[in-house]
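Good morning C.,

I know you're traveling, so I'll keep this short. The sequence:
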Amino acid sequence: MTSPAADPGYTEERHTPQRTRPRTESELNSDENDPRTPKKRVAIHANVPDPLTPIKPRDVDAALQSAVAAYASPEAAVLSLMSLFDFNIPDLQAAIRAQSLDVSFSRVKYQDIAHFYKLDPQGLMDDAPTFDLIRPRLPNRIFRRTIEDMNLMLQQYGPPHHHASEQARARFLAPLFNIIIGKFRELFKNTPESMLQGAITTQGRIEYQYCAFGSINVVFIEMKAAIRTRDDLMTSIAQVLAEGDACDYNNFKHGFHLPIFGILTDGDTFRYFRFHRPEPVRRTGISISVQRGVYHSRSISMQLKSLDSCESSHDFLTSLRPICEVIYGVLVSAYLASIEAFYQRSLRSARKEVGKRRSTDVWYNAKSIGTEALQEAVEAAEMALRDLGEANVMAENAWRRLDESVELARGNEKVGREWNLLSGLREEDFDFA
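The tokens, ready to paste straight into the viewer:
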């Protein structure tokens, strides 16, 4: 917990011993100018914007109508509302339907929304801060399963340059995520829906949007059939920005404060983003921080070799494995962020209760074990440069430790039934089915 002295939002002088006799009125009046007198803890509000203005359900429709008139697109209008008002998302959805607005973040333009995130509308997002991507090593058997599943998709849909739609591209790339996401059991659910439900187009809807523990948006994956031009790229990035902002707004409404990760890919190039709110509340005019992921501290994207350009399958695998493992790192980081959010919530609840909450220790242990597992997997990737045998042992151990973390979290937060078609089946059950 941050101490008051380390908190830039407060000032506090050292405590001095209390006087041993009652103070006179003149002494009380002189305290204000006496530097030895302890001061009350006073919040500094200079230049700090107010929290979002609460807006009643009946007023959301009028606010949306006014914003649509003021902005270049209804999508930008929605983002402006999120930067100004505290409203219930279903009320916004109802207002969109009532006004018969055709709203889709896939049409949002970078130059129309960059200012919400303190970015240059005419730039290429070069002015956005960055964060370092991590590459934890996957166990060989898990990577092999990924390749086997991708091979099935290759036989069904052909190579990426044959894909005529975003849906085909998404299905081809699904194996990159499915096995790792499955690691988190029912804790991660894919909820591919936009917050802009109503009279909206289905084009551009996020194909993968993962919600942790039934309530927290933690990671989303936007897949495009092709990104060929600068305009294609900036429009795709604009959609990522808008969706990340909407995910954070949803977390804010649920009382959670944690980073959200986004992945943008057309199957050839992979770009990574992280969204983070500066503080638990959303404030007027203060955007969430948007960061670009960099690999090896230099590259803002990762390139997958086309199958046509590879001399062998091994050539393709050496191009694919770093991408798989960076995705592994992003998904585990998102999982740990959700654990931290629930840990912080448990701490806040414990302060209001008498006695310690058991769940607080469980969240802490799940976070600690998961963090250790991720660190060991990262070390395994470094070990692979020197000793592949030892690296694979470390990767397997990290994968097992991550299981321990997940089991602790599953016992601490019930999020519904886990569906498993293989549960309780015997070999003869297949014979007589």
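Safe travels,
E.
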